[in-house]
TrEMBL record:
The chain crosses the membrane at residues 219-237. Pfam families: V-SNARE_C. Involved in transport from the ER to the Golgi apparatus as well as in intra-Golgi transport. It belongs to a super-family of proteins called t-SNAREs or soluble NSF (N-ethylmaleimide-sensitive factor) attachment protein receptor. May play a protective role against hydrogen peroxide induced cytotoxicity under glutathione depleted conditions in neuronal cells by regulating the intracellular ROS levels via inhibition of p38 MAPK (MAPK11, MAPK12, MAPK13 and MAPK14). Participates in docking and fusion stage of ER to cis-Golgi transport. It is found in: Golgi apparatus membrane. It comes from the Eukaryota. Belongs to the GOSR1 family. It comes from Melanocharis versteri (Fan-tailed berrypecker). CDD domains: SNARE_GS28. Its main location: Golgi. This is Golgi SNAP receptor complex member 1. It is a single-pass type IV membrane protein. GO terms for biological process: endoplasmic reticulum to Golgi vesicle-mediated transport; inter-Golgi cisterna vesicle-mediated transport; protein transport; vesicle fusion. GO terms for cellular component: cis-Golgi network; Golgi medial cisterna; Golgi membrane; SNARE complex. Keywords: Golgi apparatus, Membrane, Protein transport, Transmembrane, Transmembrane helix, Transport.
């Protein structure tokens, strides 16, 4: 009787676990399809609350079946250890160990599937909140597009003005450098002329004497010409 009950519970658990795994797979695929429709913005989002409720219901049912199967295994272990049953009956021990292994496998599969389902749901909830934030940001940024565009244009104008000012300053600095270099050249020429003048004073004195002699000769020549002219006039009138 205990073996029959154990097999019946194991069959029910097997069917429940298969359905539970399909529910997890369909939940993931539904979320993927929802993401595609969300990106296309042509179909409204599906509500996953029904799948969540189905998940909770199936999880509770499977846990109850696992509890019942655990109780049956405990009863079989008590029967094996009870008086009147041969302690070295290999068939009974093998049967009990087999049912325990099946229970352990079903328990492990249930917890694994449940963990995967919860991880998928948590990830999708997180992605959903991120999508909502992105949509709210897009909807809010649409109002400020004009203002942002004006700010960008004003920023570009300021950059152009800065560039023109920098070019003007560069031209002024280059002009200043050129004038400074020309001033240095003129100073060097003047210093060289002064050096030559100081180095050759005799030339200056000779030039001055030549000029004085030329001036004296001009005066003498003018006086002679004047005297000759007066004498010619006196001779002509007498």
């Amino acid at each position: 009787d205990l073996r029959k009950q154990a097999r019946q519970l194991e069959n029910e658990l097997d069917l429940k676990l298969v359905s539970f795994s399909k529910l997890c797979t369909s939940y993931s695929s539904t979320r993927d399809g929802r993401r595609d429709r969300y990106s296309s913005d042509t179909t409204p989002l599906l509500n996953g609350s029904s799948q969540d409720r189905m998940f909770e219901t199936m999880a509770v049912e499977i846990e109850q079946l696992l509890g019942k199967l655990t109780g049956i295994n405990d009863k079989m272990a008590e029967y094996t250890n009870s008086a009147g049953v041969p302690s070295l009956n290999a068939a009974l021990m093998h049967t009990l160990q087999r049912h325990r292994d099946i229970l352990q496998d079903y328990t492990h599969e249930f917890h694994k599937t449940k963990a995967n389902f919860l991880a998928i749901r948590e990830r999708e909830n997180l992605l959903g909140s991120v999508r909502k934030d992105i949509e709210s940001y897009k909807s809010g940024s649409g109002v400020n597009n004009r203002r942002t565009e004006l700010f960008l244009k004003e920023h570009e104008h300021l950059r152009n003005s800065d560039r023109l000012i920098e070019e003007t300053i560069s031209i002024a600095m280059a002009t200043k450098e050129n004038m400074t270099s020309q001033r240095g050249v003129l100073k060097s020429i003047q210093s060289k002329m002064n050096t030559l003048a100081n180095r050759f004073p005799a030339v200056n004195s000779l030039i001055q004497r030549i000029n004085l002699r030329k001036r004296r000769d001009s005066l003498i020549l003018g006086g002679v010409i004047g005297v000759c002219t007066i004498l010619l006039l006196l001779y002509a009138f007498h």
